[in-house]
Design brief:
With 252 residues, the protein is of the alpha/beta class. Strand 1 and strand 2 form a beta hairpin. Helix 4 packs across helix 5, helix 4 runs parallel beside helix 6 and helix 5 crosses helix 6. It has nine helices and ten strands.
Length: 252
């Protein structure tokens, strides 16, 4: 089965290791959580998996082929197959472009469609993420935060990816809006068969959407387990994160 794999990857900034000898794989169709506090190396890991950063050492593999060894056609296929959705949706969308143009950009990059067919595809993508096709004519500033994040997801799936890398995509949203985005991602995974890397600091969110979870601390993956086994976690840091999740009986 097709997968993204990181093998003994390390990345440093200014002599400080942001990612320290990590290895994992994500198969198409599964949802994997990457959880840790701010600064633990989660976003750097996602950027390496997306091909946006080169590791100092180790390998990032797609279908068993190291990214640096892909030919031009292979690299183009990878950019289409692996899409990333960022935490800051306001920066991810060009404020001078209408929503329809933002979503159409990856379509133009990977397909040759006439203008009418392109507009129909954009309208279909907007409906797929729960927005009216009329949103295409608006500028991002006219939308709520949840609507802007849905537009970012529509743009990411416009290329027909096999994997989505989601970097804290619900952390800036209200709880009710978060639920809508999580349900959308779960539906997309089921309908499109995409693999998800879901990065978060919130174990409660990860428990809802992921099959398994990797716990990251100071650049290293300290524990990995199935989501249903989270309550059996052994590492003290994982236990600390679990104890931080508010419940009816134990508020923060």
């Amino acid at each position: 089965m097709l997968e993204i794999a990181l093998s003994h990857v390390t990345k440093s900034y200014g002599g400080q290791k942001a990612v320290d000898d990590i290895s994992f794989a994500i198969r198409r169709g599964e949802s994997v959580g990457l959880v840790g506090e701010s600064g633990s190396g989660k976003s750097t890991t996602a950027a390496i998996a997306a091909g946006l950063l080169r590791p100092d050492s180790g390998q990032c593999l797609f279908g068993g082929v190291e990214l640096g060894h892909l030919d031009r056609q292979g690299a183009q296929s990878y950019r289409r197959a692996v899409q990333m959705v960022f935490q800051d949706y306001t920066s991810a969308l060009n404020p001078r472009m209408r929503v329809g143009a933002c979503i159409a950009e990856p379509i133009r990059n990977f397909e040759r469609l006439e203008r009418g067919a392109q507009a129909l595809r954009v309208a279909s993508l907007l409906r797929q993420v729960g927005l009216s096709s009329e949103v295409a004519a608006k500028y991002p500033r006219a939308l709520s935060g949840g609507e802007q994040q849905r537009v970012c997801i529509a743009r990411a799936i416009a290329a027909g990816p096999q994997f989505l890398l989601l970097d804290e995509v619900t952390s800036n949203l209200d709880v009710s809006v978060q639920a809508g985005i999580l349900n959308l991602l779960a539906a997309l995974r089921k309908s499109e068969g995409m693999g998800l890397l879901f990065i978060s600091h919130d174990l409660a969110v990860v428990r809802y959407i992921c099959d398994r979870v990797m716990i990251m601390r100071e650049g290293r993956i300290v524990e990995e387990l199935d989501t249903e086994d989270l309550d059996s976690a052994q590492h003290p840091y994982t236990r600390h994160l679990l104890d931080s999740v508010p419940t009816i009986r134990r508020p923060l």
